[in-house]
UniProtKB/TrEMBL annotation, chains A, B, C, D:
Its cofactor is FMNH2. Homotetramer. FMN binds at R125, S126, S127, N243, A244, G288, K303, P304, T305, S306, S307, R329. It is an enzyme of class 4 (lyase). Pathway: Metabolic intermediate biosynthesis; chorismate biosynthesis; chorismate from D-erythrose 4-phosphate and phosphoenolpyruvate: step 7/7. HAMAP family: Chorismate_synth (MF_00300). GO terms for cellular component: cytosol. This is Chorismate synthase. Reduced FMN (FMNH(2)).
Amino acid sequence: MSSNTFGQLFRFTTWGESHGPAIGCVVDGCPPRIPLAEADIQHHLDRRKPGQSKYTTQRREPDTVEIQSGVFEGMTTGTPISLVIRNVDQRSKDYSDIAPKFRPGHADYTYDMKYGIRDYRGGGRSSARETAMRVAAGAVARKVLETGIEGGAISIRAALVQMGPHGIDRGNWNWDTVDANPFFCPDARAAERWADYLDGVRKAGSSCGAVIEVVAEGLPPGLGAPIYGKLDTDIAAAMMSINAVKGVEIGAGFEAAALSGEENADEIRIGNDGHPIFRSNKAGGILGGISTGQPVVARFAVKPTSSILKPRETVTRDGEETEIVTKGRHDPCVGIRAVPVGEAMMALVLADHLMRHRAQCGAPLPPTPPLGA
Amino acid sequence: MSSNTFGQLFRFTTWGESHGPAIGCVVDGCPPRIPLAEADIQHHLDRRKPGQSKYTTQRREPDTVEIQSGVFEGMTTGTPISLVIRNVDQRSKDYSDIAPKFRPGHADYTYDMKYGIRDYRGGGRSSARETAMRVAAGAVARKVLETGIEGGAISIRAALVQMGPHGIDRGNWNWDTVDANPFFCPDARAAERWADYLDGVRKAGSSCGAVIEVVAEGLPPGLGAPIYGKLDTDIAAAMMSINAVKGVEIGAGFEAAALSGEENADEIRIGNDGHPIFRSNKAGGILGGISTGQPVVARFAVKPTSSILKPRETVTRDGEETEIVTKGRHDPCVGIRAVPVGEAMMALVLADHLMRHRAQCGAPLPPTPPLGA
Amino acid sequence: MSSNTFGQLFRFTTWGESHGPAIGCVVDGCPPRIPLAEADIQHHLDRRKPGQSKYTTQRREPDTVEIQSGVFEGMTTGTPISLVIRNVDQRSKDYSDIAPKFRPGHADYTYDMKYGIRDYRGGGRSSARETAMRVAAGAVARKVLETGIEGGAISIRAALVQMGPHGIDRGNWNWDTVDANPFFCPDARAAERWADYLDGVRKAGSSCGAVIEVVAEGLPPGLGAPIYGKLDTDIAAAMMSINAVKGVEIGAGFEAAALSGEENADEIRIGNDGHPIFRSNKAGGILGGISTGQPVVARFAVKPTSSILKPRETVTRDGEETEIVTKGRHDPCVGIRAVPVGEAMMALVLADHLMRHRAQCGAPLPPTPPLGA
Amino acid sequence: MSSNTFGQLFRFTTWGESHGPAIGCVVDGCPPRIPLAEADIQHHLDRRKPGQSKYTTQRREPDTVEIQSGVFEGMTTGTPISLVIRNVDQRSKDYSDIAPKFRPGHADYTYDMKYGIRDYRGGGRSSARETAMRVAAGAVARKVLETGIEGGAISIRAALVQMGPHGIDRGNWNWDTVDANPFFCPDARAAERWADYLDGVRKAGSSCGAVIEVVAEGLPPGLGAPIYGKLDTDIAAAMMSINAVKGVEIGAGFEAAALSGEENADEIRIGNDGHPIFRSNKAGGILGGISTGQPVVARFAVKPTSSILKPRETVTRDGEETEIVTKGRHDPCVGIRAVPVGEAMMALVLADHLMRHRAQCGAPLPPTPPLGA
């Protein structure tokens, strides 16, 4: 029931404000005897951290993670794993502008309406800084997935497939390209065009949105829990909970609405190894809320950064009309740094469902009979 | 943790298979002293029930609801409300075709992979018949919303805004039109064109998808619970959990990705009554996961019905390649009957969040009424 | 978060009032492919049902259970199991006495204070009739335990060890005796004395309390989840939730407070089979919230039946002083019929913990190494 | 579902091991705008901290709490409150004895059986050090109770009512005495006798148990949530989850089993102020799981400290028989320091139920305050 907790069996609870002393999370329910070191987590945090190119905020947050509990002699013990990142670049800033004014597109107004109080420094709890802890928890989830699936080489990867109005050519998709440009773009040529485009956006003091695609491969069929714990239900919740996300889709997504039944049906054949194979993956790897064994494919849309240099009309806490310009160091496209966050959320959903599946359907219950048995 | 339960404080648990003796749900956490009669629920069930036009399945399910507990002398008592609908039109059917074969696009294969057993009759638990109980529970949620918000005239309405590839003209939007055509279409002219289109689809033994828009008006600001219980997070989960849904978006949704920061910012002014008003609603009524007081707007995409008369290739439980034709009485566009289901899910999310908000941010406990008061 | 649901992974939700049309429950999370028939459940309900001796209420409730969902061709499918018992002996009774008056020791006053409304017929939701559904759900839990523990012959049994002020001689303990007398007493001689005692209580229009002991044998070590999901924590909650229970203890229980550290330590040796054995079981089979493999032993105290024929002073809803006599057919010692309820609650806790353990520590995780490995 | 989390709406999650860098907790769901400072929490921690008399462990842990989030300008904001205590007195100790051996009465054996790994330093996660965070979270809960109940002067106090086999004279009960002796004993004369008794126990290298009584006064009727979220159910779980607790009882508790129905009935009269008053409180302030408005009274039994200087027989991880002496600085009676822990758990249960009650039965949402109000 906590709204600061995600997951059922593999779960994490985050805490912390943008300009408090630290942010952190507690990962709870992790299986024991999984090798885990800070470096396993830091690797993923480094992909998200700010200041890595001129296209992301110039704040300098090293985002160094510390493990405070739950690991003994390099192995998880099954007890809660407390992770913390100290906040170091909290520029002593003048908040006289945003304290009394509601920035359009931000959570300022709604937090005030809900709680009657808000830590306005840097967005407080509603800052995207919170997503660092998702990436940290997601790194632990990946370790669970590696350990938990027999013979499984599971991979969870994401890429930016649209920046502002500009998409990619899927024929150029190359996963190796993703980490070779500052946008996590899988199409090298699109990345070049985006560089120019985003320069223009940045110089204009404007911002743009993005679409991210997350792909999980190597999953067994059977993960997911109908009716209200469907795999796609939980992926939708996971992605929509990320700051600035306004839409989520699975497989063919919104385009499926325009297809005919026969176009949309993923026909099934028997592969050379005797296992079923699907001729297409309109379903995005999920049927009836349960994984089919095909790649799980999700996309989510991120709105343009609300913090822009162009003045916008707004009101104050005192009910006065005014306008506001959001100065400071902001990402012109927050969608970029949402890429590792999307991966993390997918890992977290899958680790949770792995454990949920094991609870209800795992050994020593008779294993699911293979086809033809 | 139950995957058959939705909601945290106002919650419901559904049970039942398409061809079992009955389907039902338990609504738990409902506030006491809310007037509730079977007719309040039946009204909404009747909008969803099959056989109302040639465009929906010709099964005859009166879908008559019975209240079995939790209501005393016409009022809720605060104890669990058990609702049941007897299944009456379970045609004794020949299942020799679908029992051993996996229908493409259906949950047959994945249920078998997960559980090693499946009630194949009419889709069993994965049948959209389950959504009748969502509509029933949603009717109770509406009553909570009516009672729970001071002076509030909350309305939750939905409409079909796209059928197959065919959209509507938003300039023609008329809520009164929605119940005046068999498609819940708000644009009377589009409805006429859709009639022809869907006739063609049906005669061809094919099917089509749809997009549904759900709008909640009259909400106060402040509902929603960051970070992982955001209002949009829960709406995304609610809609994605509906059978055949492949995408969900809030406000500008996926289109927001292509807007600039200044286009997407909903500027704020002070209205004549001293309350803030927004110049636009790109946010869909939600900022930082909390309601702004503007209309909450969500859309979801439904894939084309998987049960079609055109033969599709598939495999059997024995690992043999085969093909399948899904005979029987099916909706050519399951999106139509998803309209009242979308409304119900929105009501359920909002009722839950109303109670969650009251728990954390509500006034001190009312003093105990003295006896005899 | 539902207060009508018990359990985390293996969970059940009960509904229904004493004098409504039916009572029921939904068992959710049950593993698939477990053989289950109504007779498996009925057997346990029959041990609890009223009217079996002159020492229990003379109401005639056959308490016939129906399975409405979740079972297909004699096997569980992994979907929710809806169980229902129709209420048949709702004597059309004159409630003019208890409707406006608060019966001392009953929940009348508190339900009214909480909800401002109450179904007073037969106690409504607060009636011990609800415990029939616990026994039904517990019967399903037993099946899970039988299937879920490798090589395990788990047994869960309970007995009445104190009636009013009268205990038993533990030297006479014989499990076979338990079902051979109307009190579930394991000491045949005590049972004889209790017969006389309870006759006197009943004739005097009075009532008495009882203490029940529940023993689970055949459990593996390792079940239980520190810190707040300890096995003993959940057993305490389970037993305390039973109507009229006022105390719960594990192993040596309250007597442990008076022991010295050396008396209370259960020393450990290596048995002939190489497994550790404990010299005593003061811990009641649980250390640090986790099962040791010894028998799990819990006891709970049931207060005397509050419905008695002797007049008691009370007040009305209108704030008037008055007195009340509770007529009708009541158990002079409700503790007797609590015996199968205690067994059921133990089974429910253990089945839940079995699944929880499997989720976090189960295969394909490396199995716990045996001692000496 | 987390076993490291307690509470539903007002909830806290603890983390940390005895000899890790720190222990901490996240308090989630706290209402906003409650004044909170570290001193509010430290006050209660100081009552629990070790080394305050010769009767508790001589470890020197200042147990200084830091608030890391969720408080802004001295007020709670409604976001998660992270509390941390650095571990400072982790004597670099020789663990060669307890690492491979299972201490009788400790969780060593069961943690190893469950997880296959255990942080043996100082008991790791199973150390009573974890209870410091309960006291910290409980201090926040007290603030919620003060704010949440209109006109309410709620008090939660506890006392030691039995040490080893030695009880108190209830006629001497004086709450002021409780903090005037090292045992939290309410009977000054008993405290003197206990001093001699415990000296003897300590010098003998032995230990003893205790019984603690917790009393909450000033509660309104109506708190509690039948059937499985009863107030007494949650109190039982709360107390049983404390380290070394083996029994819990409410009101007359186990003694109720020996009473007659008429002795046990708390008769009701109308007081001078027009409110009902009860002639006795056998029920311990709870009927049907809901508070009556009388004082809520709970007692729990703590077993004797398992760490004693007398050698006990045990086995090693390698399956060898051996014996063990637990050296080090241990409380001869852990029950003493359990007194503030019992108070904290009571406060936590009540704060949670206050919020749960408000969610279901509270008044309509307060209208949104207009801007500038």
